[in-house]
């Protein structure tokens, strides 16, 4: 099947949405589809550089269009540019979209589409999505959590239940760093537990929890991988004289496994309010964090915040330890428990087994396309 993936992500960028989009395009291609990605243009890098930076196969085409940084106009300008690019191409069998404005401009072409959402609509997006769902070309809404599915049912009660698929996010199978790989973390203290965090340093990600833990456990090393220079400097300034916390800065997706190899324990200390880039969108009720699946893929012992949306994937004392987000005593107790190597191995193995069974990108791609395949083609799949 020929698929045009319509994305609002900028390629390349450091945002999680760009990683998710690149991985999904790779997965669609790996299971046998002809994929073209339409994305915003981050810089003048060539396609091969983009593929290598994200650690994905160059098995799909990327077409970059203008996505200016003008708050109100950028979506409309991008939508027009994508429409022009699509109109000059041989039409696909299916549109798969995460960008509602561009998708709305393509509905009149009569091509079936799937639409993926990662948060409920606000402002004009609610009107746009209403139009999308009422189009005769609409086939299915893909959401990243059960809690987000329930919210869409509340917002659009007329939308048939069978028109919504829950597909949690995913990760690549883990590639353990080998003896020929250059170590990315050096100088680790012998006999010390290595505790890691990989991800952005945005508000609500719990970096303050990691700093408090580093103070309480001077016999363990704490590593923070990710963030831009401004955020890193701000957090370093708050660590004072703490000697056992290390900020490694941004690592491209293709290099993250090398960091995970060095860690004994990994943290996901999300707070009760979690924000994405820009600090305007709060996602704690709907999110499906990529880092959770990357941790599971690596088979590491996970300590995560006990949030309802994370319980859709994580189970306390089975594949992780869940603790109250802002209870430092609970976080400390979890670190203390995971000094036990046997417990770390048990939790990590259970997480990795579940990941391999349910949460690879290939499995996610199969899940979102399954209704079309079962209907023997996009044209025949009606809601």
From TrEMBL:
<dbReference type="Pfam" id="PF13439">
    <property type="entry name" value="Glyco_transf_4"/>
</dbReference>
<protein>
    <submittedName>
        <fullName>Putative glycosyl transferase</fullName>
    </submittedName>
</protein>
<dbReference type="InterPro" id="IPR028098">
    <property type="entry name" value="Glyco_trans_4-like_N"/>
</dbReference>
<dbReference type="InterPro" id="IPR001296">
    <property type="entry name" value="Glyco_trans_1"/>
</dbReference>
<dbReference type="Pfam" id="PF00534">
    <property type="entry name" value="Glycos_transf_1"/>
</dbReference>
<feature type="domain" description="Glycosyltransferase subfamily 4-like N-terminal">
    <location>
        <begin position="20"/>
        <end position="168"/>
    </location>
</feature>
<feature type="domain" description="Glycosyl transferase family 1">
    <location>
        <begin position="190"/>
        <end position="354"/>
    </location>
</feature>
<keyword id="KW-0808">Transferase</keyword>
<keyword id="KW-0328">Glycosyltransferase</keyword>
<dbReference type="GO" id="GO:0016757">
    <property type="term" value="F:glycosyltransferase activity"/>
</dbReference>
